[in-house]
Amino acid sequence: MSFRKVNIVILVLAVALFLLVLQHNFLGLSSLLRNEVSDSEIVGLQPIDFVPNSPRHAVDWRQEEIPVVIAASEDRLGGAIAAINSIQHNTRSNVIFYIVTLNNTADHLRSWLNSDPLKSIRYKIVNFDTKLLEGKVKEDPDQGESMKPLTFARFYLPILVPSAKKAIYMDDDVIVQGDILALFNTPLKPGHAAAFSEDCDSTSTKVVIRGAGNQYNYIGYLDYKKERIRKLSMKASTCSFNPGVFVANLTEWKRQNITNQLEKWMKLNVEEGLYSRTLAGSVTTPPLLIVFYQQHSTIDPMWNVRHLGSSAGKRYSPQFVKAAKLLHWNGHFKPWGRTASYMDVWEKWYIPDPTGKFSLIRRHTEISNIK
C-alpha cells in the first residue's frame, strides 16, 4: 500500500509540474504579444492591445512594416477611425497602426475596431499617461491644446514605436487618398530627424487669422519680445511648418535626443511664457519649430493639403481635392461637426460607431426646416 501511495504522489507531482510548465509557456507567449511596446524607459506609455497577424486584403508581406502613429481622444474618435480606414483601403503595404489614447477610451476604441469593416486592420493601442506632462504644460483655457494631453504624443515617437527606424505621425483630422508607402518613402537629408510640410508651400494658401496676422512664419508662434527667444537668432520671417503630418527618422531622433529637447522647451515655456498667444493657443507647434529650425526635410505638399477646417467655405476646387494625397481639416471646423467643407469626401471613409457613443453632427434637420 505504501508503495502505491508513493507512485500516486509521484504521478500527482509530475502532472502539477507539467501544468506549471504549460502555464509558464502560455504566459510567456501572451506577454510577448501584449507587451511589444513595453521596452520603454517611460513608465507612462504602455501597450493595451495588439492584433498580431490579422488577415488583410492583398498585402505584400515582403515589404517593410510601416508604423503609423495616430492619437485618438474620446471626443474625436470618429476622426481617427476615418483616417485609419482611408489609409488601409488605399495601400497594399504592410501597415501597423499605433493608436495612442487614454485608458478610459481603450474599450470604446477596441469595440469600434472590431466592427466588420475594420477587422483586417493591424494595430496596437497604447495608453498615454498624462503624468508625463507634469511640469511641462500649464493649463490655460485660452490655449485649447494645453487641455488635450494626446496632442503631445508626437513628441514621444521613439518610445511609442521602439523597434522602428522610421515612422509616420498624423493627426486624427485627416483623410489619406494616396498610397501611404509614397509618404513613408520620403527622403530625409543626412542629420534630419523629421520631414514636414512647410506653411509657405504652393498648395496651402497663406491663412490670415483674425486679429493675429499671418499663420505661416515663426513670429506667429513665438514671442520675439522674450530674450530667450531672441538669443536663438532665429529669423522671425522664417517659414513655419505644420506638425500634423510628418515622417520621422527615429534613429536620428534618438541620436539627437529630440524628445528631451522638446521637453526642455515645454518646461521653459511654463516658466517664462515663450509662445505667441496671438494664434489662439498652439502649444505643440512652437517647441517643434525651435528644435527643428533649419534642421528638417520636407514632404510633398500634396501629402498635407490643409486648412480645410479653417472655414466652412470651400477653398479648393473639386479637381484639386480629388488629386490631393492627404486632406487635412486643421482648424475649428471638423468634418464630423455641424459645419465643415468637403464633408462628403471625409464621410466616405467614416465607419459608424457600433456602440452609438459617437455620432456625426449634421444640419439635415435645419436644412429640411428651411425648405
TrEMBL record:
InterPro entries annotated for this entry? Glyco_trans_8, Glycosyltrans_8_dom-fam, Nucleotide-diphossugar_trans
Compartments reported by the entry: Membrane
Membrane topology reported for the UniProt record:
Single-pass type II membrane protein
Keywords (A to Z) from UniProt = Glycoprotein, Glycosyltransferase, Membrane, Signal-anchor, Transferase, Transmembrane, Transmembrane helix
Q: Which domain of life is it from?
A: Eukaryota
Cellular compartments per GO CC: Golgi apparatus; membrane
Offer an example of a GO molecular function term for this protein. UDP-glycosyltransferase activity
Q: Does the keyword Transmembrane apply?
A: yes
Regarding protein family, the annotation reads:
Belongs to the glycosyltransferase 8 family.
User: What name has this protein been given in UniProt?
Assistant: Glycosyltransferase 8 domain-containing protein 1
